[in-house]
Every structure is written in C-alpha cells, then in structure tokens.
C-alpha cells in the first residue's frame, strides 16, 4: 500500500520518476489530474491494521433513496435504447447518510482492510473525500505489458447457479467484453481468458481478463482516454451524444463526479488504474453512497432497483467491525 501526504503538486503529466496519483472526474475534466505528494510511505495491511485497530467503526444513519427519479431516468434510457441511440448505458443512484463527527478515519480504515480481489483506494482534502474497495481494474501498464478486464453482470451469491446461465447478464457482460477487445485490437494481439464468475462474498460478477504486449508506445493518459469509460460504466456505443446524455442523467441523480472515474497510481514508471466504484463519498458529516446499473433492452425496472440496493449493501458490509480474520 502506498500512502501519499500533501501538499500535492498538480500537473498535466506524470513525473519522470517517483510517485504520483491520478485523480480525475468521470468526464475527464481536470486538466491537471496528476497529483505528486510531498512525501510517501509504503506499508502493508498487517502494519496498517495495527496502527488503526483503535479506530471505532463508522456509525451512521442512512436515508432510503427515492425510486421516483430513477424510474423517470430509467424510462428515458429505455426510450433511447428503443430509438437506437444506445445499446447499453449505466445510470447511477445515490443513497445519503449522516454521521456524528468526521467519518474520514473510519471509512479509510474500513476500506484499507479489504482484501484481494478488491483493491482499496482513497483521496482526502480537508473535510471532504472518498474511499472504496473496488473489484474493477481499468488497466495496468508495465513496460509494454497491458492488462485489463471486463467486469459486468451482477447477482447475489446465493443465486450463482442461475446467474451462470442468465442470458440477460451474459449478454450485458459480452457487450462490455467485446467492446473492450475492439478498443485494443490495433495495439497488439489480445489474449482473453475464459469468462468466469468473481465471487465477492455477498455478490458475484462475470469477469473476463485480457492481456497483450503493446506494439506501439502508449502513455497512461492515451490509454485512459481510449478505455474510459468502459461499457461497464459508460454508454455503448460511446459517442459525444451518448456520453453527454449519461453525464446529464448522472447529474440529475446527484452522482459524485469521481464515481466510476479512473483512479491511478504512477510508481517509478509502472501505472495501475482502478475504476472508482464500491466507495463512499463524504462532505463533513454528510455521506454519499453511489451505485450504478447497466441497462440494456432486456432490463426491467424492479430488477435494476434490486441490483442497485445489492451493490450498496455490499459497500455497507465493508463498514462492519473488523474481526481480524
């Protein structure tokens, strides 16, 4: 684990050496996304657990989200799909909460204790910030070696057997996987591993892993703009029109700007970017818990609303008291 301490120097490109964090919004609107820390520390999960074992778990009250606004957006999305504008897009619903006192240390501690295949991330500025533990890698780049994944399709773990043969979930996953391949083909020979089920305890996803040796030099920024947003979080097809519609829906549903955005670490020439999902945002004592759902022609409102709750509940489980196991 790499922890950076400010003040941070913001720049348009990563440093030639050392460490920098890539912190960006979903629309890639920050012209200076590379944040170089004044100092860094490297630690491991066992040491971090020892240092934070006295920090109490987060205590908060959640407000059930109103389905009305999402149902309006859902119908607009379906109309766009039937009109041939989209094949798939991913609106986001947020659940709000409140806590007594600053939630920063409790949230950061909870997220940093999550284990593989989840990857922890976080960013704090004064009394605002966000942190999470995501299962989704946007890509990693070391030398010419590029690795990425398609992660789409969701169900409860107890429904795993039915999920494995669910045509709607498989179709949603293949939209993402095939689009990803199409974006990589001109970079080199793409190798895809067989689709598998990623078990995250309370929920499962379809997962396909990809790798290739990049034949032409690529900077992290070039690859981010090529791959983000994937159809797992963005529209399919991805055009200026479809992306603008998605950004409008995200804004209407009060989605945090960084949710689903790339969050990366540049470390002595190696770069890894995750997708900032499965996290909590805070501003003072106010909490925001976002979750997105992939909508295709076969989607149904009740099922998507259930999936959104399933994903939010998975994040809330991160906040449960740490057992040490």
Essential attributes:
10-stranded antiparallel β-sheet, 325 residues, alpha+beta, 8 helices, Anthranilate synthase
Structure description:
By secondary structure, the protein is α+β, with helices and mostly antiparallel strands. The protein has a single domain (about 1-45, about 70-320), classed as Anthranilate synthase, CATH 3.60.120. It is about 30% helix and about 30% strand. The chain has helices at about 45-50, 65-80, 105-110, 160-165, 165-185, 220-225, 240-250, 300-320, and strands spanning about 1-5, 10, 20-25, 35, 40, 60-65, 90-100, 120-125, 130-135, 135-140, 145-155, 190, 195-200, 205-215, 260-265, 270-275, 280-285, 285-290. It is globular and about 50 Å long.
Summarize the topology.
Elements: E1 2-5, E2 9-11, E3 19-23, E4 34-36, E5 39-42, H1 45-52, E6 60-63, H2 67-82, E7 92-99, H3 104-112, E8 119-125, E9 128-134, E10 137-142, E11 145-156, H4 160-163, H5 167-184, E12 191-192, E13 196-199, E14 203-213, H6 220-227, H7 240-252, E15 262-267, E16 270-275, E17 279-283, E18 286-292, H8 301-318
Antiparallel strand pairs: 1-5, 2-4, 3-4, 3-15, 6-7, 7-18, 8-9, 9-17, 10-11, 10-16, 11-14, 12-14, 13-14, 15-16, 17-18
